[in-house]
Every structure is written in structure tokens, then in C-alpha cells.
Design goal:
The chain is α+β, with helices and mostly antiparallel strands. It contains three helices and eleven strands.
Length: about 200
């Protein structure tokens, strides 16, 4: 597979990526956060673990050459290229409807949790949990006193990351629907991805 595919605005998409293949995730318009998960194909209880990854990197976000480690501490995908400023968030949970309630929204709001489960369902898959995501292109600055802030993404139009699969995985992406905080700098828009054979 090498055709450009769409992650619709405010929605999710999942795709199988075989060991040795890569996925290129493109911030088509710039400043769009894309929540990302990888599950081991055929063994969905193993998935990208942000706690385990941070402990291995000894950093809050990955750099080129770093692997995303699983909750069983195995490398699942390796960040082989990143044309963005490199700021990706591993601290914030994927948004859910309850999060928007805390922000004052009183009706249902599209969210990354439901997008992840919906994307898996399109492949006929189900998991009873929502792992922490790596929030690609999301800019969460931190201060020495521990303060965090939700700042606009630093990525520009056309920035992308390429992640190489170290095992057969199911890659899941959500174009974050956050339109209350300023993380997307604009209304949520679509992103694109491509599965690369090398």
C-alpha cells in the first residue's frame, strides 16, 4: 500500500502496518494534532506505552531514532524521520467526552477516545480500554515548577513524521477535535497518511 489516505477532521482511522513497513503521517494544513496509538496485530493487549517510552528515552518526547515502546517494553515503532519542530506530547490523555464536559461543553463532543475505538471497529476489532496516546504535533510546554500549558502546535503545513514498524502493528490515528483550547490553532482539519513499503 502506498496511496495517500485521509484521516478526516474530527475522526479516526486505523490501518495495518507490517514489520518493516513505515507509516508517514502528514500534518496537511499545519497545526493539527494527531493522536496516535499502535497495537500489536493479533495481540491487542500490547500497545504503545507512554510511561514505558518516557522511562526508556529519559525525555518527555521522542527524537528521530527513538522507538515507541510497548506496555511490555518492546519497541513497536521507530521514529525514522520528523520534519516538524519535533514537539510531540506524551503527557496528556486522549480527549474524551467527559473532558469536554469539564471544559464547559454540555452536549456530546467528538473526541479522540471514541475516534480510536471507532477506527478499530472499522477493522472489526475491539478493546475494553483506551491507552495513552502519543499526541503528534501537540505542544504542551512545561515549566520548572511543574506547570503545563496548552499552546498552539508548532508544526507547519506539510510537516510529517515517519514511523517504522518493528512488529506487525495496527496504527490508529485521530485528528483531534479539540476546538475549545487553542492547541490546533484553528478549527480541526483533516490529516493524511501513507503506508510505505520501505
Amino acid at each position: 500500500m502506498s496511496d495517500l489516505q485521509t484521516v478526516p477532521a474530527r475522526r479516526g482511522k486505523a490501518v495495518r502496518v507490517k514489520k518493516g513497513q513505515s507509516i508517514k503521517i502528514i500534518n496537511t494544513h499545519g497545526t493539527q494534532v494527531v493522536d496516535f496509538w499502535a497495537f500489536v496485530d493479533g495481540q491487542l493487549t500490547e500497545y504503545t506505552g507512554m510511561d514505558q517510552s518516557r522511562a526508556t528515552w529519559t525525555r518527555l518526547f521522542p527524537k528521530t531514532g527513538d522507538a515507541l515502546y510497548s506496555n511490555r517494553r518492546r519497541p513497536l515503532m521507530t521514529l525514522v524521520e520528523d520534519t516538524s519542530p519535533g514537539r510531540h506530547d506524551t503527557l496528556m490523555a486522549p480527549c474524551d467526552n467527559e473532558r469536554y464536559g469539564l471544559l464547559g461543553w454540555t452536549e456530546y463532543h467528538d473526541n479522540c477516545k471514541d475516534n480510536m475505538h471507532g477506527a478499530l471497529a472499522e477493522l472489526g476489532l475491539y478493546v475494553p480500554y483506551t491507552p495513552a496516546s502519543i499526541n503528534l504535533f501537540m505542544n504542551i510546554p512545561w515549566q520548572e515548577d511543574g506547570t503545563l500549558s496548552f499552546d498552539p502546535a508548532l508544526s507547519k503545513k506539510g510537516d510529517y513524521v515517519i514511523l517504522r514498524a518493528e512488529l506487525d502493528v495496527i496504527a490508529v490515528m485521530s485528528c483531534c477535535p479539540q476546538d475549545i483550547l487553542a492547541i490546533n490553532s484553528q478549527k480541526p482539519v483533516e490529516a493524511h497518511f501513507e503506508v510505505l513499503n520501505q
